[in-house]
Design a protein that fits this description.
By secondary structure, the protein is of the alpha/beta class. It is elongated, with a radius of gyration of 24 Å.
Length: 396
């Protein structure tokens, strides 16, 4: 590699190391002020203030989401984005480490802006604030609104137990099924009623058993959320909810969900009830792995001296709204090791403000920033990544 390239990489690393106080400030302040999805007003104020102080132009309420934002510097191509998350979990706060996701994105963006300013390099650097990952999936909404349609590449880093290239996730499209019957006195004249709960139970059993008729890589987990109001009244309404997941969103939408609905319709008809369906969350697509970005990211982990573990067998059933972004633009979600605790736990939340977590967050920011630089320095790699995405769309 030529000297200019190596000096630029060294400068990016040093610039991000100098941002340690900002990373610590974000991690601790968001940890101390956890907010649920679409209520992250403190986090948005904090993050956008820091970005504006460093020369980014901020737009708020992107795609109609009250706690989303876009922070930009430059107006040329390529347009490279770092995605921030900042919603917390009920009761346990930042047990998924989204305070560190935000901190890594901010540090990466400021680092590349300082070393590769748009005034000197043809580029646009962005931070996209993506709220409510744990609930409605802010990135799903933003993708559908076209926010990522003019983004040339996107990066995000998620804390956990190991360093990795991120891996895969499944497609998910949760469904609520409501049965409508007719009430009657359960002891006096039950024959005059239509038992919606019977239909709901039959549907639950049927849906749980259709896996035998589907290919591997499907998850059907459900609960009955309403089964009537009193045991001496024939239930006129009953509701169940299912998380419906598959490795492939096309198979999910075209095969699995129609089978689920057939089960529910058959159950309703068997007792004379009516049935209605509602998707209470949007379609989360499976994560498309991008080999070009994975190769670049792996090289930069190596540049920093951070070994990556051997890839483990494909994990089952995890879902993230990053998946939708990976089908819109070349995108990768890396993982960085901040804790030995399991995700979505108080222990992991507490571990987000340790020296280990801060150091790992800086490493994640460096990997993303160095990888973004590589896409600039080797534009053929970016073109290769975009061609790969086009080919996958044509295949599907």
């Amino acid at each position: 590699m030529n000297q200019d390239y190596l000096e630029k990489k060294k400068a990016i690393v040093e610039a991000i190391d100098a941002l340690r106080p900002i990373v610590e400030d974000i991690a601790v302040s968001l940890y101390q002020n956890p907010e649920l999805g679409l209520e992250e007003f403190y986090a948005v104020s904090k993050l956008t203030h820091i970005l504006e102080e460093h020369g980014f132009c901020v737009r708020r309420e992107i795609a109609g989401l009250p706690t989303s934002f876009s922070a930009q510097t430059g107006n040329k191509t390529p347009r490279i984005a770092f995605m921030a998350e900042y919603d917390a979990l009920p009761e346990i706060g930042h047990g998924c480490g989204h305070n560190l996701i935000a901190a890594s994105a901010i540090a990466a963006a400021i680092g590349v802006k300082e070393c590769l300013p748009p005034e000197e390099v043809d580029v646009t650097w962005l931070v996209l604030g993506t709220p409510a990952e744990e609930t409605i999936g802010g990135k799903v909404v933003m993708t559908e609104a076209g926010v990522f349609s003019n983004i040339d590449a996107a990066f995000i880093a998620h804390p956990g137990q190991t360093y990795s290239l991120g891996g895969t996730s499944w497609a998910s499209h949760p469904i609520e099924i409501t049965f409508h019957g007719k009430s009657a006195h359960a002891g006096g004249n039950p024959e005059a009623g239509i038992n919606a709960l019977d239909a709901c139970v039959l549907a639950y059993i049927g849906i749980r058993n259709i896996k035998n008729h589907l290919r591997d890589g499907v998850r059907l987990a459900g609960i009955i959320t309403h089964g009537g109001d009193a045991p001496n009244i024939v239930p006129e309404k009953a509701t169940c909810r299912f998380t419906v997941r598959a490795k492939d969103s096309h198979y999910l939408e075209e095969i699995v969900l129609p089978r689920v609905k057939q089960c529910a319709l058959g159950a309703a008809q068997s007792v004379g009830a009516n049935v209605e369906f509602r998707h209470y969350e949007p379609l989360f697509r499976e994560t498309l792995e991008h080999p070009v970005l994975a190769s670049i990211v792996a090289d930069n982990f190596g540049y920093l001296g951070q070994e990556l573990p051997k890839p483990e067998p494909e994990d089952g059933g995890g879902v993230t709204d990053v998946g939708n972004v990976t089908w819109e633009t070349p995108c990768i979600q890396i993982s960085f090791a901040t804790t030995d605790a399991r995700g979505h736990s108080r222990e992991m939340a507490n571990d987000t403000v340790t020296p280990r977590a801060i150091e790992a967050t800086l490493t994640a920011a460096k990997v993303m920033a160095l990888s973004a630089f590589d896409l600039l320095y080797f534009p053929g790699r970016l073109e290769e990544a975009q061609n790969y995405l086009r080919a996958r769309h044509e295949k599907n």
